[in-house]
Design a protein that fits this description.
Blueprint: E1 5-8, E2 13-16, E3 26-29, E4 34-39, E5 46-48, E6 55-57, E7 72-77, E8 80-82, E9 95-101, E10 104-111, E11 114-121, E12 128-137, E13 143-156, H1 158-161, H2 165-168, E14 174-177, E15 180-183, E16 193-199, E17 205-209, H3 210-213, H4 224-228, E18 241-251, E19 256-267, E20 274-276, E21 279-280, H5 283-292, H6 295-313, E22 316-317, H7 324-344, E23 359-360, H8 361-369, H9 376-387, E24 399-400, H10 418-433, H11 455-468, E25 512-513, H12 514-533, H13 537-557, E26 567-568, E27 574-575, E28 585-586, H14 587-595, H15 604-616, E29 617-618, E30 622-623, E31 626-627, E32 653-654, H16 655-667, H17 671-680, H18 689-692, E33 700-703, E34 714-717, H19 722-734, E35 737-740, E36 743-746, E37 756-763, E38 766-773, E39 782-787, E40 790-792, E41 806-813
Parallel strand pairs: 38-41
Antiparallel strand pairs: 1-2, 2-9, 3-4, 4-5, 6-13, 7-8, 7-13, 9-10, 10-11, 11-12, 12-19, 13-18, 14-15, 15-16, 16-19, 17-18, 20-21, 22-37, 23-24, 25-26, 26-27, 28-31, 29-30, 32-33, 33-34, 35-36, 37-38, 39-40, 39-41
Helix pairs in contact: 7-19, 8-9, 8-10, 8-19, 9-10, 10-11, 10-12, 12-13, 12-14, 14-15, 14-16, 16-17, 16-19, 17-19
The structure holds beta-D-glucopyranose and 1-deoxynojirimycin.
Length: 815
């Protein structure tokens, strides 16, 4: 087993000890409007708000070597040229360490007695990133050397930038003044913003032309300028503008020098654009430089980033959880991933190019479930933004661009699960905050200009959409697809040049989804509970009756004998049934029927979970999405059968849907199973990194299952709904501290051998210190609940009515 690094839990860092990790191991910087992707070799790129429309630096996906663009420092020391992060030069280093922390990455490289530390972070509420550089001479002699910081600029619109060279090779423009490079491509015309790359150390030279600095026939691993050690002061006209500086050092034995580099997105605002023809007004850029020219200001900004994370994470901390993997995920990394998915949805990561997808309707709603406790007011705004992209008939834009908040029509629609997720996110927000005013917000519908229909109206519209769009079995029509984007029952594509995601006609189709039926049950229960909380009993009863009706349909139409059928195709034939040759059992319908409350009284829910355990689960990797994997392409099923067996939606371990099963086990009090299943997909618990390959600190969307030729290999990390749902699993179902409309419920489901744990939870302005003890060695069941010394019935912690802001809760599990 190879070792590439380890967790430093005390510092909330993952420490990478060699740069040649099996895949790039990425960190995410920023949580406001400016973001950076940063790998263990300083690879990645930066953007403001929208990775497609406001990209600052260039990044070549699907490159070889992988991850070869970034925030590079070249060190030229005598004859040797190296990078502290190893890449792109890949010179052998005497020392290397990368610390991925919360909102920062710190890379230190050492060679021939010189060490260079590069600490990269994005100050809170700033549209810029700072690299604090610390250079030390560990030798007994004075050392002369130079450092060349380097970035390659992107001309903001990333798709155009990487496809339309007849134009982009002619538009590049820069200005250089003092120790700063101003990248101002398209600034003369419609842009009112530019990129600033600057250093607080006096420069000895610069380059802004890639041809001059790197060379047309060289690579980033051997830039031309590094051969001579002298920048050429080149000015980019067209072609590819870059930012490179020459910084000269003469360090005494034992001496250290610290300086900073700034990469900023600068919006000119109301300032005049130019001081003179072709000379831009640089006031704002200079203000930024002045602000960070003092390294004490850099340090203060870094401390503030750390302090902000400490404060965010203090909302939910469970410091004494017996299992170290669950402990570090729930306390730290899982919450960090929730921040990333909330901010970026599925737009920009090591696998999402930032140009393919915006904010997903179903994705963003689910992301809120794991995020809402961190910053409820941001979740509130997001819910309203999402709702505004719903149409008045209940259908939704499947995605929208974060910059414009407008739906993207070209990525398709008709995903019939979409509307229902809005109910889950809204209910989660109100359970966290009790803020019912959100329901009165006039979000309006995307197809009704100027409409001011409330969020509550949207929730009703969502319910009505599902009820009114049902098929021959009275189950919900699937439309283009449900949660499983690849179950395309109305696509029938024979053309390799068609996208599964947008092809096909859903008008008049009969294909139905049991998953949506289960989701409807869940959403309807949420909605009626919400109405009850609002004191609207009649509405609650009305929704209850829809629930009962759908439940009856599910039980009558969707039970296949030992598990729930997945769907009915366009010809009304069952999918995910014992009558199928392949794909006999699917995970999603077991999960959602169980979560929605089906099979509770007739024993089917338990049978469905048992079937998952028998046919889909493998302790080493998690549950495959279905069984058996499809070996052939099926016209009537679409993309799900396009993947090779054991990958992605064709029987891969799709981590996201595994989490719903974890909740299922917890609901049934199966503590051992809940934890074992939880650990089966938990990145921290993956011991063999050469097999798993992906980052050990964040969830992967997909792991090749035991039904594939490469079992255990994970990919597509960071931006997956697994982030939010795993947090829900760990925090609310295993540790069992769950917000409800009337307060926190304590309902743990743990392995019998756990003796206890604690949870510190900030909730509605009160700090709860919860101690759970398990003297009888049970998995579930609260025997006693003592709140500030007073015994309380049940498992709901009453909200203090006397203004107390600190509450001590003692919970004893037992039969
Ligand atoms: C992937 C899905 C994804 C969909 C939409 C498909 O190729 O397999 O996981 O949801 O694309 O982007
Ligand atoms: C990834 C997509 O982002 C998500 O919306 C979808 O539910 C899953 N893939 C499953 O297909």
């Amino acid at each position: 087993m190879a070792q590439y690094g380890h967790f430093d839990d005390a510092n909330r860092e993952f420490v990478i000890t060699r740069p040649d990790t099996p895949l790039p191991w990425l960190n995410m910087l920023g949580q406001d409007e400016f973001y950076g992707l940063c790998t263990q070799t300083a690879g990645g790129y930066s953007f403001w708000k929208d990775a497609r429309l406001r990209r600052l630096t260039r990044y070549r996906y699907n490159n070889n070597p992988m991850d070869n663009d970034g925030r590079f420092l070249y060190v030229k020391h005598g004859k040797s040229v190296w990078n502290p992060g190893w890449k792109p030069v890949r010179a052998e280093l005497d020392g290397y360490e990368c610390r991925h922390g919360l909102g920062y990455t710190q890379i230190t490289g050492q060679k021939d007695g010189i060490s260079v530390e590069q600490l990269m972070f994005i100050p809170a509420n700033e549209n810029l990133e700072v690299w604090k550089i610390t250079v030390s001479n560990h030798t007994k002699k004075s050392q002369k050397f130079s450092i060349f910081p380097f970035v390659e600029f992107c001309s903001f619109e990333a798709l155009n930038d990487m496809t339309n060279y007849q134009r982009t090779y002619s538009i590049g423009e820069v200005e250089v003044e003092g120790d700063a490079i101003y990248h101002k491509t398209e600034y003369r015309e419609r842009r009112n913003h530019y990129t600033l790359f600057a250093t607080t150390k006096k420069i000895a030279g610069y380059d802004t032309s890639r041809d001059a600095f790197v060379g047309v026939h060289n690579g980033l691993h051997d830039p031309k300028v590094l051969a001579t050690g002298k920048c050429t002061n080149s000015k980019a006209f067209g072609w590819s503008p870059v930012g490179a500086f020459q910084l000269d050092f003469n360090l005494k034995p034992g001496a250290t020098e610290t300086f900073a580099l700034i990469l900023a997105y600068v919006d000119q605002g109301d300032l005049p654009k130019f001081d003179a023809p072709f000379v831009m007004n640089k006031t704002k850029g200079k203000q930024i430089l002045a602000k960070y020219s003092d390294i004490a200001a850099v340090d203060a900004a870094f401390d503030a980033v750390k302090a902000r994370w400490d404060s965010l994470l203090s909302v939910y901390q469970a410091p004494k959880v017996p299992n170290e993997h669950l402990r570090r995920m729930v306390n730290t990394w899982n919450q960090v991933q929730c921040m990333a998915t909330f901010n970026l949805s599925r737009s920009a990561s090591g696998y999402e190019t930032g140009i393919g997808r915006g904010m997903g309707y179903r994705d963003s709603n689910q992301d809120i479930l794991g995020f809402v406790h961190l910053l409820p007011e941001r979740a509130r705004q997001r819910i309203l933004d999402i709702a505004s992209t719903q149409l008045s008939d209940g259908t939704c834009f499947h995605q929208y661009q974060p910059l414009t908040k407008k739906g993207n029509a070209d990525i398709g629609g008709g995903f019939n699960d979409d509307p229902l997720w809005l109910i889950l996110s809204t209910a989660a927000y109100i359970r966290e905050t009790k803020d019912l005013t959100i329901l009165d917000e006039p979000c309006g519908y995307a197809d009704k200009k100027g409409s001011r229909d409330t969020l509550l109206h949207h929730l009703e519209t969502s319910i009505a959409y599902t009820l009114n769009n049902r098929g021959p079995h009275a189950l919900p029509l699937i439309g283009h697809a449900d949660w499983n984007d690849c179950l395309n029952l109305n696509c029938f594509s024979k053309e390799p040049n068609e996208s599964f995601q947008v092809t096909g006609d859903i008008a008049g189709s009969k294909a139905e989804s049991v998953m949506i039926a289960g989701l409807f049950l869940y959403a309807a229960r949420d909605f009626s509970a919400l109405y009850r909380f609002m004191g609207k009993e009649d509405d609650a009863k009305r929704i209850d009756s829809y629930y009962a009706d759908m439940l009856k349909t599910v039980e009558e139409q969707a039970w296949d004998g030992s598990w729930y059928t997945r769907a009915f195709d366009a010809e009304s034939r069952p999918i995910g049934s014992k009558s199928n040759k392949e794909g006999k059992i699917y995970i999603e319908s077991q999960a959602w029927c169980v979560l929605g409350g089906a099979g509770q009284t007739n024993g089917r829910a338990k049978k469905a979970l048992a079937a998952v355990d028998k046919y889909l689960y493998d302790k080493r990797y998690g549950c495959a999405l279905q069984y058996p994997a499809y070996s052939e392409y099926h016209l009537e099923l679409g993309e799900v059968t396009s993947y090779p067996p054991g990958y992605k939606e064709n029987a891969g371990v799709f981590s996201h849907n595994n989490t719903w099963i974890h909740i299922g086990w917890a609901m049934f009090g199966e503590g051992e199973k809940a934890l074992e299943y939880y650990l089966s997909i938990c990145p921290s618990a993956k011991a063999d990194h050469d097999v798993y390959r992906s980052e050990p600190y964040v969830y992967a969307q997909m792991t090749a299952s035991h039904l594939s030729p490469t079992p255990g290999e994970a990919k597509n990390t960071w931006l997956t709904g697994t982030g939010a749902w795993s947090f829900v699993v760990a925090a609310q179902y295993i540790l069992g501290v769950r917000p409800d409309f009337n307060g926190l419920v304590v309902d743990p489901c743990v392995p019998k051998k756990w003796k206890g744990f604690t949870v510190n939870r900030k909730y509605r302005g009160v700090q709860y210190a919860i101690e759970v003890k398990n003297p009888k060695g049970v998995s579930k069941g609260v025997k006693t609940l003592v709140v500030d010394g007073v015994k309380v019935k049940g498992n709901l912690i009453p909200i203090p009515t006397d203004g107390r802001t600190k509450v001590k809760v003692e919970v004893t599990l037992g039969a």
